[in-house]
Amino acid sequence: MHVLLAGGGTAGHIEPALNLADCLRRHDPEVGITALGTERGLETRLVPERGYDLRLITPTPLPRRPSADLARLPGRVRRSVAEVRAVLADTRADVVVGFGGYVALPAYLGARGRVPIVVHEANARPGLANKVGARFSDHVAEAVPGTIPGAVHIAMPLRRSIATLDRAAERQAARASFGLDPGRPTLLVFGGSQGARRLNDAVVAAATELTARGVQVLHAAGERNEDQRPAGPLGPAPFVTVPYLDRMDLAYAAADVALCRSGAMTCAEVAAVGLAAVYVPLPVGNGEQRLNALPVVEAGGGLLIDDADLDGDELLRHVLPLLLDDDQRHEMSAAAASHGQRDADERLRALVLAAVAAGSGTLDPGGPS
After folding, report:
1. CA distance 165 to 142
2. SS3 4
3. Pairing label, strands 257-260, 239-242
């Protein structure tokens, strides 16, 4: 079997695709896997790092307003679709699995009528590419219930190190790896690979009070924001700033509470490992980050703070009591864990195999244009 993955652009599209790839290889080391991407996306780094074949096609972002780019769009789409069909023919792919993003739409158009299509939507509101792909497929999955009519809810495919994490068993070693005290309540602050200025400003403003009250902080500021660290005196608890967290499993194990954005992958991981969290949705796009966090918040596994409201005082008002109240924190962690799901990669693999079985012998990846 050969699987063509289409989920380039951002880590939110690429990571679940690679997690599915890892699951497929875990069951069958001989399975062929190729990922589609563009020269602009993070996939140019992330896909090779995970050991998978990457093929680049022409990006086809949809302009949001009339422009010269909009006039050029049909030609770009035709070119991208032709490039996808060339990859299908070259790899003899048996199925296309799409996760949204710039490469997904031409992948769906190129695969239609040739090989089965599987669609996975990570966010609470689907993007254009997956709306189109869902019309071409009987095998549609969603991470948030009710996102796409007729889709099966399977949650978000997670990295194996996250899906199998035992936070309690790893806590001491994880804290030691970051230079943290083994026994203090610990706040993890992160805003994705680039960091989040609003979260950074708030935790730096609250740093003196947090550390004075015995709370230690692990702060992933972002690779361009290493200068965002407390300038004044701190209390006895450590305040550790790092540019980026390569081992999120260790960060989750070290933490008692997370202050974070609410991208689809973040919400899925934090809930699955049973970590109490205060979510601060990024106020852009169509509001999907808030919707991503709502199910786990409504289940009792987290709190929501609007981006515009977050500052040092608001952080202390909501986060400090949670860190200092063991009973409340444990209740919230248990609620998060009961909401989270760790086997979505296996469930998505099963959907892929079903799609291949349903389409076997009826389609031709090198068929007519």
Report:
1. 23
2. strand
3. unpaired
pLDDT top residue among 76 and 184: 184
Map residue 126 onto helix, strand or coil: coil
Q: State the Cα–Cα distance between residues 136 and 359, nearest whole angstrom.
A: 13
What pLDDT, on the 0 to 100 scale, is given for residue 69? Answer: 57
pTM of the model: 0.89
Residue with tokens 């792909």: 133
Dihedral of CA atoms 199, 283, 272, 119 in degrees, nearest 10, equals -140
Alpha carbons 189 and 148: distance in angstroms, whole number: 32
Both tokens assigned to 320 = 């400090």
Give the rounded distance of the alpha carbon of 142 from its chain centre: 13
Comparing CA positions, the residue from 193, 182, 121 lying closest to residue 150 is 121
Identify the residue with better confidence: 13 or 108.
108
Q: Which of 112, 160, 164 is nearest to 134 (CA)?
A: 112
Start-to-end CA distance of the chain, whole Å, equals 23
Count of residues making up the chain = 369
Helix (H, G, I), strand (E, B) or coil at 173: helix
Distance CA 60, CA 17 (A): 19
Residue 132 burial (10 A CB sphere; 0-12, 13-18, 19+): middle
The CA angle 80-82-87, to the nearest 5 degrees, is 95
Domains of the chain: 2-158+343-359 (3.40.50.2000), 161-339 (3.40.50.2000)
pLDDT at 223: 74
Distances in whole angstroms, Cα of residue 77 to Cα of each of 58, 59, 127, 308, 333: 8, 8, 17, 38, 46
Compute the chain's Rg from CA coordinates.
22
